[in-house]
Specification:
The strands form 6 sheets. Strands 1-6-5-12 form a 4-stranded antiparallel β-sheet, covered by helices on one side. The relative contact order is 0.15. About 5% of the residues have low confidence. β5 and β6 form a beta hairpin. It is built from 8 helices and 14 strands. The chain is elongated and about 75 Å long. The longest helix has 19 residues. It is of the alpha+beta class.
């Protein structure tokens, strides 16, 4: 689940980069959720939308918030609060994803995501005698529409369900959830097992390699590709380019023309490929 910086927190920290909307009546007609309460102190970022155009300054400030402020103060103060979980109480981790369209970070909350560390995955064991529905997680999320930092949009929640070992880019692979709705998601997990020796399937057991390497390193082919790209671009100082999900935001390098086919060609398919079907 991903979210951005709250508008009120941004304008409090950077008052010179915010202003009262130009043509307030028209703005309220276009974006009524901003004007449902007292609008005497309403301010929006100077992004050229009913405000002065200082896009680069606002962008740099948003990057500073993610790179410095969120690291020091935590995501709850600057972004939306961690989702409230009603059942099971899985560990919720805060990560960050770079949005290449808006050229900035978004906050991501995840459970059972293990693409870097040495923690074991959370598991639920049941057999065919397990008749009733099993609830893995139940989350409640509270979002205020008027907190959107980009005033022409409403805050979005994107949900992705995927393997614990494979990161996804929610802006392309996630499902947008509408505010004020309840979603019930049924999951059916499937596995594709490739034939073992003597059949030539060119497989690598990444989980075995991870355990052999003292529970370090990638645990899937996809993550191996990402780390390969990241290492390729390491000479770019203070750069996070090539990784989808990061634990701590840093400046992202501008696009570097490159061919990583040779690097990716060395990576072998995993012995098991998991697939998650949502209903």
């Amino acid at each position: 689940m991903k979210r951005r910086v709250k508008r009120e927190a941004f304008c409090t920290a950077y008052p010179d980069l915010c202003q009262k909307p130009d043509n307030l009546a028209e703005f309220c007609e276009m974006q009524p959720y901003f004007c449902s309460d007292n609008i005497s102190n309403l301010e929006i970022p100077k992004l050229g939308y009913y405000a002065s155009n200082l896009t680069n300054d606002v962008h740099d400030a948003l990057m500073e918030i993610y790179i410095h402020n969120i690291s020091q103060d935590g995501a709850n103060l600057w972004s939306w609060e961690v989702p409230y979980e009603q059942e099971n109480y899985s560990k919720i981790t805060t990560n960050y994803i770079f949005d290449f369209e808006k050229n900035g970070f978004a906050t991501c909350y995840s459970t059972n995501l293990h693409i870097y560390g040495g923690e074991e995955v959370e598991t639920t064991i049941f057999d065919d005698t397990f008749i009733s529905k099993h609830v893995l997680n139940t989350f409640e999320i509270f979002i205020r529409e008027e907190e959107a930092v980009y005033p022409w949009t409403v805050p979005e929640i994107m949900l992705s369900i995927h393997s614990p070992f494979i990161p996804v880019y929610p802006f392309y692979e996630g499902e947008i959830l509408e505010l004020g709705h309840m979603y019930i998601i049924n999951i059916r997990m499937e596995e594709e097992h490739l034939l073992e020796y003597p059949y030539y399937t060119d497989c690598t057991d990444y989980e075995h390699l991870w355990e052999k390497n003292n529970k370090t390193g990638p645990r899937s082919q996809e993550m191996c590709k990402r780390l390969c790209t990241w290492n390729y671009l390491k000479p770019c100082a203070y750069c996070d380019h090539g990784l989808i999900v990061v634990d701590k935001p840093i400046w992202v390098c501008e696009y570097i023309a490159m061919s990583s086919l040779g690097c990716h060609a060395k990576l072998e398919k995993g012995a098991e490929e998991g697939e998650y079907r949502e209903e």
